[in-house]
Amino acid sequence: xxxxxxxxxxxxxxxxxxxNYLGAVKGMLQLQDEYDCVFSVVDLHAVTTPYESTxxxxxxxxxxxxxxxAGLDPEKCLIEVQSxxxxxxxxxxxxxxxxxxxxxxxxxxxxxxKAQHPKYVNxxxxxxxxxxxxxxxxxxxxRVPVGIDQxxxxxxxxxxxxxxxxxxxxxxxxxxxxxxxxxxxxxxxxEGKMSKSVEGxxxxxxxxxxxxxxxxxxxxxDSGQLGGQIPQEGGVATLxxxxxxxxGKELHHKYVLDYKDKKIRYADMKKELxxxxxxxxxxxxxxxxxxxxxxHVVDNILREHANKCQxxxxxxxxxVREKMGFLVINN
Length: 331
Description:
13 helices, globular, two-stranded parallel ribbon, three-stranded parallel beta sheet, 2 domains, Rossmann fold, mainly alpha
């Protein structure tokens, strides 16, 4: 029986944070037992915004270590470094020839990045959604475990798949998002979502208990009036969201009642939440340490998996080239 294929990637921008873990990696863990999975560190995407060339390789390896520590099993899924498989770029070029520039310019994510880095607006940034589509379609991915904020990019992938199929014959499935319970993790600042690009907004999956305590201590709790409904935004909303996802419904309910009864002590809540988060992350950190101390094991996994990924990728490229009418010489 054919297993549906899953593809997902995380940018090579350093350590994974709690939002990445709850929003993407936990979804990957659910999927690797049931589907044919390819999980990537997308280093080609990382260079579309300001970065340090001297630290890109280390940032890429860091995400790989976090993947392995979190429980991605090299025997159950393929773990890929995007740039190790040049077919990503080749397919993205073919797909770019059938997709309008105007559509890319209208994407909210492109506009946001332009505003965030006004002096670093490059062709790669505009091209980002086409490369993301190629990442998924190269493996004919049908499910993509990403947060809700990536839905506009997934719609681009679906549009490209439909356009290619209508022009050249049925080739690509239309990928759908696999939603996880923690698909949107709010920032510790109380504004927006947890993000590596916003200092003070995140907890790294490698943070120790003391660091977690220090970060939670800074979460603002003066927003919202005690009693009534839990606020939907702000620092208080962040604390309750994390408590629900990691502390369990019973512990979350206890603090909801305390809030409604106007007797909540945020210092106690933050301390308990710190313990809960650390208990979730400690097994990951211990497993990660093994891979960190045995880099040859990681290198062997990456080498073997790159070869397997290229086998799949070459089949897709061969099919695409034939359907688009390129000259193909059979072996």
